[in-house]
Every structure is written in structure tokens, then in C-alpha cells.
Amino acid sequence: MSYGTQHADTGAPALETALRAGPFHVALRAAITARGLPLHRVQHHLTRHGVTVGVTSLSYWQQGARRPQRTESLRAVRALEEILDLPDESLIRLLAKDEEHAARQRPSTRSYRSLVEASGVLEQFLAELGSSPDGGLHTVGHHERVRIGARRELLGLDSQHIVRAHQDGVDRYVAVHHGDPGCSTDHVSVRALENCRTGRVRRHRGTGVVVAELLFDARLRAGDTFLFRYGFEDGTAGPSSEYLRGFGFAGGQYALQVRFTEGVLPVRCHRFTQHSAAAPRGGRQDLPLSASHRAVHVVEPQVRAGILGIGWDWEG
């Protein structure tokens, strides 16, 4: 369905060039101009698609001041392709291309393309499982313990979660594991360790995403708290050099510990943050590695939306 106006052909050559060469913000601006739609009308059409994006965000996107990266924002980009009568995935591909270019200017990490693809898979899995982005739960505390093996691989992790329901009837949590590049999701196992049991599990080989329902034995009422523990066993990918956790919402305390196998220690470790997957890394801080316990950790008393992680460097 096209949302073009009587000025829909204006600027068509410039639009075709922008869609081929990018960058994303230039193509988006050219498409909006070609269709003759003011930003408040674009926002209105997005709302009809069930996507909420502010006019200010749209303005930032077309100026290149910000890039869409959250699940809801990527849904908006796909909706914009329909609203602006653009080829499928045309804007999404430009986003990936822009990020791959930007990635060459910053330390090696997961590519933006992989994060975009993983977010799309996660959105699909959440829809299949009938879960909202926060599942009706707010995090009070989340403690993760990551284990690195003798081949420098991500062996697995254990998570202890304390949550508070903000609506009645919540009886499950959807846990997400995003394996390192080369991860074999068919061989990743889910462990329900305390106060929960495993429900449906979804796996996506291309992105390394594994999503698992953890079922509670009772339905929580709004205001109820619940403590449970679970884990993922991996060990299927190559050497790992970081572990990160993305937060879609601000929340409670988060603690991350990475423990290394005896005799396989990195030469240095650091903490890092990112406002989004598309943003440069900041908040870098060297972290002491306990040689006797072979562990490094970081504690965030009150998490913010974005990404927090620990990275490490291997010798040789």
C-alpha cells in the first residue's frame, strides 16, 4: 500500500541514487521529500502500523544525528519502507552498510548487521511465544556468571534473576542467549536451575539466538516479587573476547562476573558501555583480574537502557 501524495514523483532520481549509495539518513530524507509527507504525517502512518516513534526521533534519523537500533525502531524502519513505497529491506540494508563502515572506525565487536538480524529474530520469537518486550516484569536484580573454557570459548552462563510483576497473571520469563559468531544453536542447552522449569525453546542458527521460556509454578499478582535461576550451556563457538548484556529498559542492579579456566587468562580486562548498538563505545574502565580466583566482575547499581559488558584481550 502506497502513502504517496500528488508530489510522489518529486525528487525521484535523487531518491534512487540515495537508495543505492546511502547513507541511511540521506535515503530516508530523500524518500520523505519525494513522497511529500511532513514528519507529523509520517508519524501518523507509523501509528496506524502499530509503531510509536516521536517526530523528534524521525527528525534525528533523517539528519543523521541518530540511527534507529532498538527493536521498536527497527520495526518502524520496516514500516517506513511500506509507508514511503520503498523496496523491502532497502532502508534496513543501508543501516547495516552504515554500521559496517562505522565499525571499521572503532574496536572490533559484533557487527551492527548481526545485531539487527538478531533483534528481528528475537522480535519474531517473542511474538510466537506471545510475550511482550518486558513480559510484564520489572527487574529488581540480575546476577550473571559467565564461564570461559580452555579453548577461550564461551562455555556457558548462569543467571539469577529477581523480578517484580507490574501486572496480574504473569507466570513465565523469556530468557535470551546470543552466542558468539559460529555458535551452533542446536547444541546449546537450557537449564532451569531454581524455582522455574523449561517451557518452549526457539533457536535460530544464522544469528546464534536461543530463546527459552522459563515457567513459574504460580501466577504472580502485580507487585509480587519472584526469584529464579537458569543457565545456558554453549561451548560451540570460537575464542570469545567479550560478553555484553543489552537492556531495553532501565532497571535494578546488574552484576556480571566472567571466570576463566585455570591456565587460560587474558592479559587485560575492561568494562564498556554503549548507548545503542550503533553508537561508539564509551565508559571504558580497566578492571582488575583476580589471578587466584581467575575472575573479573562489574556491578551496575541501577542499569540504564543500552549495553553494558566486559571485554578482554588475549596474548598472542
Automatic annotation (TrEMBL):
It comes from the Bacteria. This is XRE family transcriptional regulator. It comes from Streptomyces aureus. The lineage of its organism: Bacteria, Bacillati, Actinomycetota, Actinomycetes, Kitasatosporales.
